[in-house]
Specification:
The protein is an alpha+beta fold. Helices cover about 30% and strands about 25% of the residues.
């Protein structure tokens, strides 16, 4: 019986012993050339990823393009009668005659109104934000395309004005004024105004503007 059991045990173990080398030999082997080719895309991806990191780590002063200058301060002074300390538009960055204008006001601690509003917390007065927006609206109105006259400009009224957030020293106030309705016969225009800082709405309202000769 012991001999028979040994025979049966041998019959089960012997067939598996010679198969192990054969199974190992079935594993695919990469040639050096194929390994090099497979590695190249990885190197390229790593290089691309490295390039992204370099771009992301660029100095912050190089990440933001300057505002365009559709009208510079000299062109604005040729249109608006305002002068220091009441000229509150530094540049026009977008403009379509007779339709809209987008202007900016760089709010700095050197603005004279900060001497009293407020010495310990410099906040741009809301009435001056409205005035700055009206001046941007005047750049739309005081143009021949809408029958405007550069001799006279009147801020006739405001409605539905809301101040959403304070504007402080160091902010850039971006103001869009859009012409809604124009009565050429009377030289009266209704405009919609919105002002932003960093994409956040800080002020909005409806403006009534009047132009024409005395």
């Amino acid at each position: 019986m012991e001999t028979a059991a040994m025979a049966r045990s041998a019959s089960y173990t012997l067939p598996y012993a010679p198969l192990r080398p054969a199974l190992l030999s079935l594993r695919p082997r990469r040639s050096p050339a194929l390994s090099a080719q497979a590695g190249r895309p990885l190197v390229a991806r790593c290089a691309a990823a490295g390039g992204d990191r370099v771009e992301a780590e660029a100095p912050i002063e190089k990440r933001f393009p300057p505002f365009p200058a559709v009208m510079d301060i000299n062109q604005i002074r040729d249109i608006l009668p305002h002068r220091f300390p009441f000229l509150l538009v530094d540049r026009v960055i977008d403009y379509k005659p007779g339709e809209y204008a987008v202007g900016i006001k760089n709010v700095t601690i050197n603005d004279n109104f900060f001497l009293g509003h407020f010495p310990e917390r410099p906040i741009m007065p809301g009435v001056l934000m409205v005035e700055a927006m009206a001046q941007v609206g005047a750049l739309v109105m005081l143009q021949p395309e809408v029958g405007g006259s550069r001799e006279n400009f009147f801020f006739a009224g405001i409605d539905k004005v809301r101040f959403r957030k304070p504007v402080i020293a160091g902010d850039t106030l971006i103001m869009r004024m859009t012409l809604i309705k124009l009565q050429k016969r009377f030289g009266i225009a209704k405009m919609e105004g919105k002002a932003y800082v960093g994409g956040d709405l800080v002020c909005e309202g409806e403006f009534l503007m009047a132009t024409g000769s005395e």
